[in-house]
Write a structure and sequence with these properties.
Radius of gyration of chain A: 44 Å
Largest sheet of chain B: 2 strands, antiparallel
Mean pLDDT of chain B: 86
Strand content of chain B: under 5%
Distance between the termini of chain B: 47 Å
Largest interface: A-B, 92 and 72 residues
Number of helices of chain A: 26
Low-confidence stretches of chain B: none
Oligomer: heterodimer
Helix content of chain B: 25-40%
Structural class of chain B: mainly alpha
Radius of gyration of chain B: 26 Å
Low-confidence stretches of chain A: 1-23, 388-398, 495-506, 586-600
Helix content of chain A: 40-55%
Shape of chain A: elongated
Distance between the termini of chain A: 53 Å
Chain lengths: 746, 126
C-alpha cells in the first residue's frame, strides 16, 4: 500500500498552519529593539499550559514563542546545573546529562503552582525579549485561567513586583481575549459563547454585552494533552514490539497530522468495521525503517570445493606444525635425559656426604629427586613418541614401583625427615591421592557407560517384543512425569503465570505464599530490621544490595539440583518423538494456544513494521466530545454549551437564541478538522428544535488570545485595569480575589 | 559558567545565571538542594482556598467544574474502537465481536490493566 499523507479531506487552513508549525512553533531569537519602547508600553504575555507567548502591546505578533516547559540538566563537561527553557534541539542535548531532569511544567492542570520554574521561564522570556535595564520597567498584562485561585494569582503578582520590579500588573483570561479580538473583527457578537479546548482543560464561557459572565462558565478537565496521551497508549498497546517508538512527541505529531473529528462516531466506525472503501482511503500508514535480513545464497559446487581445499591445506599445515613441535620436543627431552643420566653416573662416583655440595650447582637437592626427575622425563618421552601405555595389570605393578620412585618419602615416618623433606612428602601424598582419584573416576565412568548400553539394549528388546504395549507404557509414564513437573512449577510461581484472570503480582490477604515468595519476604524483613537501631540504614553499605541477588528468580534456579523429574521428562519426550509418530511435544501445543508470543516465531516482514492508524484517527479526538471514553465523568464540548447556558442567570427570553447564534471556537485543539461541524450538530441536538446555531472558528485559534491581549493593553485606558505594587500590598487578599478587568475597552 | 562547547555557546540555549533586570537572582532565591516539595499542588491549593465558605453564587475554581453527562454512556471496544455491546466478565474489557474476543483473551495481565487504566477502570490494589 502506498503511504498516504493528509490529503484532500483535511481543512485547507489546517494544512497551511501545520506546514508553518511543524516541527517547532518556537521563536526564541533574542530581540534587539527593547530600548526602543518607552516604559509606558506594556509587555503582553499569554502564559498558556502548552505555549508561552510574549511581545509588545499594540503589535499583532508575539516576539518570542516557546513551549512552556523547563529542564534543568547537568552540563557534562563542567558538572554545573543549567536551565533550559522550551523545546530543544535533540542534537544539542548530548552535552547534558538529562537522566534526572525531564522537562517540567510550572502548571498543575491549568493553574500555575511551581513558581521557581515560572521564574526560570520569565527569566528566559524577558531575556529573549531583549530586556537589559536594572528592572523590567513596563506594565505587564499576563493571562491566567478562569477563576484562578487567589493563591496562584498573588504569587504571580508577587513574583512580578518583587523580582522583576514591574510597575503594574493586569490579569486576563486567554479565551476571553480571543473572543473580544474576533468580535472586533466581526466574527462574533457582543452576546455569545466562547468554547476553548485547551491543553489540559476545556472551557465554555458565555458573553453578555461584551463581558464574560464566569457565573455561567464551565470547565471540563480534558484537552489536547489527553488526546495525544490516548493515541500514544493505544498505539503502544497495539504494537507492543514498537512501543519505544511512540514517544509523547511522536504521538503529538501523528495527532496533528492525522487526527480528525467524525461527524458521527458510530457511523464512521461502522465504515471501518465493515472495511468499506472509504475506510480504506481514510487509513494512514507510518512505515518504520526496516532492513530485510540478508538472504543466504546456498554455496555453489565450486564454492564448496574451494572451501574444502582451503580447509584441507590448513589442516595439513597444522599437522606439519604439530609434527615439527613434537619432534623438537622429543629432541629436547632426549637431551635432557642424557644430561640427567650423565649426572646420575657422576653421582655414583661421589661420596655420600659430598652429594649436597655436588648437586648444589645443578639445582637438585638429593639423589631421589634426581632419579624421580629421570623417570618423569623418560615417561613423557615415551608418551611423546607415541608408545602404547602399559597393560592395566602391569601398570598396577608399575604404579607400585612408580610410587616408590615418585613418592619416595611416603613411607618414611615424619620424625626422620627434615622440614624440607616434610614439605616434599606432603606434596607427594597430595599428588598420589589426586592421580588415584582420577583413575577411579575414569573406571567408574566406564562402568556407567557399559551399564547404560546394557539398559538401552534391554529396552530395545522389550520394544521389539511388544510394540503397542511398550508405547502405551511410555505415554503413561510421560503424562505422569509431566504432571509432576507442572505441579512443581505451579507451586513455585504460586499461580502468577495465569492469564490476567486473577489479581496477579500482588499477594492478597489469605493467599498462600510459595516457598520462593516466603523466602523473599524473609530476606526483605531481615534487611529492614537487621540494624536494630530503629533507623533504616539499608543501602549504606555496598554489600547490602547483594540481597537482591539472593532474591532473584535466577538465583533460585541455580541453587536447585538438576531436577530429576525434568530430566526424566526430557528423556521420555525424546524417546517418544523417535518411536511415536502421533506424539506432539506438550510444550508446543501450549504455546500455540497462547497466541501472542508464538506468532513472533515466524520471521518478521516489512508488514510488521508498518503502523496502521485507522480508527485511532477519529477515536482519539472524540474524547473532547465524550470524556467518559477515558474515564472522565464530565460533559464534552457540545454539552458544555448547554450547561453554560443553563448556569447563566438570565430573564431575557431571547438571550439564549443570541448566545447560540454566536459560538466561537478558539484554542489550539479547535484546529482539528471536523470540529466545527460536529460542535454545531451537537449543539443542535441539545437545544430546542428550530433554534439558531452558528459556530465559527477564531481567525487564528492559537494566536488570537495573545492578539486580543495585545490590543487590550494598547488601549489608552489600560492602566485603569491594572494594579500597582502599592495596591497589591495595600488592598488585601479579598480585593485581589475580586479583581477582574473589564473587557469592553476592546 | 565554565567552558561550554562552542556549538552550545553559539546556539545560546541556556538561560544565563545572572540577569541584569532582576532585583534578586534565581540562584540567590533557590540555593542548591532546597527546592524539594515546597510548592503546594493544585489539590492543596484548592483545599486551602476554603471555597465552601465562599458565597455559592460567586464563581470559583471548583464550582465552575462541568457536570457529568446526561447522555447515555458511549461504549466502545477497548481494543478496536468499534461499538461494543459485550463485556468480558473476567477482565472487564469491552469487545465488539468474537474475533476481538480472542484477542482480548490472549492479552497479558499487564496489557489488560493498561487498557482498563486508559478509561480509569483499572483495579488498584492499595
Amino acid at each position: 500500500r502506498p503511504i498516504t499523507y493528509s490529503g484532500a479531506d483535511d481543512d485547507g487552513r489546517r494544512q497551511n498552519r501545520r506546514k508553518l508549525s511543524m516541527p517547532f512553533v518556537s521563536r526564541i531569537r533574542r530581540q534587539t529593539d527593547y530600548n526602543v519602547f518607552p516604559s509606558s508600553i506594556p509587555i503582553v504575555i499569554d502564559n498558556g499550559a502548552s505555549y508561552f507567548r510574549i511581545g509588545w502591546a499594540g503589535e499583532t505578533e508575539p516576539r518570542v514563542v516557546f513551549r512552556n516547559i523547563v529542564q534543568r540538566p547537568r552540563h557534562k563537561a563542567t558538572g554545573e546545573t543549567v536551565t533550559i527553557v522550551g523545546d530543544q534541539d535533540p542534537a544539542l542535548m548530548k552535552y547534558f546529562d538529562c537522566t534526572r531532569s525531564g522537562p517540567r511544567s510550572a502548571f498543575d492542570s491549568n493553574v500555575v503552582y511551581q513558581f521557581e520554574l515560572m521564574e526560570y521561564i520569565l527569566d528566559f522570556a524577558f531575556d529573549r525579549l531583549g530586556a537589559n535595564g536594572s528592572v523590567i520597567d513596563h506594565p505587564i498584562l499576563i493571562t491566567e485561567c478562569v477563576c484562578n485561585p487567589v493563591q496562584s494569582r498573588s504569587k504571580m503578582a508577587e513574583l512580578l513586583f518583587e523580582t522583576y520590579g514591574v510597575p503594574a500588573v493586569a490579569f486576563g483570561v486567554d479565551a476571553a481575549f480571543s473572543y473580544k479580538y474576533n468580535q472586533l473583527h466581526g466574527l462574533c457578537k457582543k452576546d455569545g459563547i466562547v468554547v476553548c479546548p485547551g491543553f489540559t482543560t476545556t472551557h465554555a464561557i458565555p458573553f453578555v454585552d461584551g463581558e464574560p459572565v464566569y457565573k455561567g462558565s464551565c470547565r471540563t478537565n480534558i484537552g489536547g494533552y489527553h488526546v495525544t496521551d490516548y493515541l500514544k497508549q493505544l498505539l503502544s498497546l497495539k504494537y507492543p514490539f514498537h512501543s519505544s517508538r511512540f514517544t509523547w512527541e511522536k504521538a503529538e505529531d501523528l495527532k496533528l497530522e492525522h487526527g480528525y473529528i467524525a461527524p458521527d462516531y458510530a457511523s464512521e466506525v461502522r465504515k471501518f468495521q465493515e472495511g468499506t472503501k472509504e475506510a480504506e482511503e481514510k487509513t494512514r500508514y507510518w512505515q518504520l525503517p526496516w532492513i530485510p535480513p540478508p538472504v543466504e545464497v546456498p554455496p555453489s559446487e565450486e564454492e564448496i570445493a574451494r572451501k574444502a581445499a582451503i580447509r584441507e591445506k590448513q589442516g595439513q599445515r597444522l599437522r606439519e606444525m604439530a609434527e615439527a613441535k613434537r619432534s623438537s620436543k622429543i629432541n629436547e627431552m632426549e637431551n635432557e635425559l642424557r644430561s640427567l643420566r650423565f649426572l646420575v653416573n657422576q653421582l655414583d662416583q661421589v661420596e655420600e656426604d659430598d652429594i649436597p655440595s655436588f648437586l648444589s650447582d645443578t639445582g637438585y637437592a638429593s639423589r631421589q629427586e634426581l632419579e624421580s626427575t629421570v623417570s618423569k622425563v623418560t615417561q613423557s618421552l615415551r608418551k611423546a613418541r607415541g608408545e602404547p601405555k602399559e597393560e592395566p595389570d602391569e601398570s598396577e605393578e608399575n604404579t607400585d614401583s612408580l610410587n616408590n620412585e615418585k613418592y619416595p618419602l611416603m613411607n618414611v615416618p615424619d620424625n626422620m625427615l627434615t622440614p624440607e623433606q616434610l614439605k616434599d612428602k606432603r606434596r607427594q601424598i597430595f599428588l598420589k591421592t589426586t592421580t588415584e582419584g582420577r583413575l577411579r573416576a575414569r573406571q567408574k565412568r566406564n562402568e556407567e557407560e557399559l551399564e547404560k548400553e546394557r539398559r538401552i539394549q534391554l529396552e530395545e528388546e522389550r520394544r521389539r517384543e511388544n510394540p503397542e504395549f511398550y508405547l502405551e507404557e511410555m505415554r503413561a509414564q510421560y503424562k505422569e512425569v509431566l504432571e509432576r513437573v507442572d505441579q512443581k512449577k505451579r507451586l513455585k510461581t504460586n499461580g502468577s503465570n495465569t492469564n490476567g484472570n486473577q489479581k496477579t503480582g500482588g499477594v492478597g490477604r489469605g493467599e498462600r505464599l510459595s516457598a520462593a515468595q516466603r523466602e523473599r519476604m524473609r530476606l526483605l524483613t531481615t534487611a529492614a530490621f537487621d540494624r536494630g537501631k530503629g533507623e533504616d540504614t539499608f543501602g549504606s553499605r555496598d554489600e547490602d544490595w547483594q540481597l537482591y541477588k539472593l532474591m532473584s528468580k535466577d538465583h533460585d534456579e541455580d541453587d536447585e539440583q538438576p531436577d530429576s523429574d525434568e530430566a526424566e521428562l526430557a528423556r521420555l519426550s525424546s524417546r517418544l518423538q523417535e518411536i511415536d509418530p502421533t506424539f506432539v511435544m506438550k510444550a508446543e501445543e501450549e504455546s500455540n494456544q497462547t497466541s501472542g508470543e508464538a506468532q513472533r516465531v515466524r520471521p518478521l516482514t516489512e508488514e510488521d513494521y508498518k503502523i496502521v492508524i485507522g480508527v485511532e484517527r477519529f477515536r482519539c479526538p472524540e474524547i473532547l466530545f465524550h470524556p467518559n471514553l477515558v474515564g472522565i465523568e464530565q460533559v464534552g464540548l457540545d454539552e458544555m454549551g448547554g450547561a453554560s447556558i443553563r448556569r447563566l442567570p438570565h430573564d431575557d427570553g431571547e438571550l439564549e437564541e443570541r448566545l447560540t447564534s454566536s459560538i466561537l471556537m478558539t484554542g489550539g485543539c479547535s484546529l482539528t478538522p471536523g470540529m466545527k461541524e460536529r460542535l454545531e450538530s451537537g449543539m443542535r441536538m441539545i437545544r430546542p428544535c428550530g433554534s439558531t446555531i452558528h459556530v465559527v472558528r477564531a481567525m487564528d485559534p492559537e494566536l488570537d488570545a495573545w492578539r486580543g491581549a495585545s490590543a487590550f493593553a494598547a488601549d489608552l485606558n489600560f492602566l485603569r485595569n491594572a494594579f500597582t505594587k502599592v495596591d497589591y500590598y495595600g488592598k488585601g487578599e479579598d480585593w485581589l480575589r475580586r479583581y477582574q478587568i473589564r473587557y469592553n475597552n476592546l | 559558567m565554565g567552558e561550554m562547547e562552542g556549538e552550545l555557546v553559539e546556539a545560546d540555549i541556556v538561560v544565563p545565571m545572572h540577569l541584569s533586570f532582576k532585583k534578586i537572582q534565581a540562584y540567590e532565591k533557590y540555593p542548591k538542594g532546597q527546592s524539594r516539595g515546597r510548592w503546594k499542588h493544585l489539590k492543596q491549593i484548592l483545599q486551602a482556598e476554603n471555597f465552601q465558605d465562599c458565597p455559592p453564587h460567586e464563581p470559583n475554581y471548583v464550582n465552575i467544574e462541568s457536570p457529568p453527562s446526561t447522555q447515555p454512556c458511549k461504549r466502545i471496544c477497548d481494543i478496536t474502537g468499534y461499538e461494543a455491546p459485550y463485556v468480558d466478565p473476567r477482565t472487564n474489557l469491552r469487545y465488539a465481536n468474537s474475533q476481538v474476543f480472542k484477542a482480548v483473551r490472549s492479552l497479558s495481565a499487564e496489557q489488560v490493566q493498561q487498557y482498563l487504566s486508559i478509561r480509569n477502570a483499572a483495579v488498584v490494589l492499595k
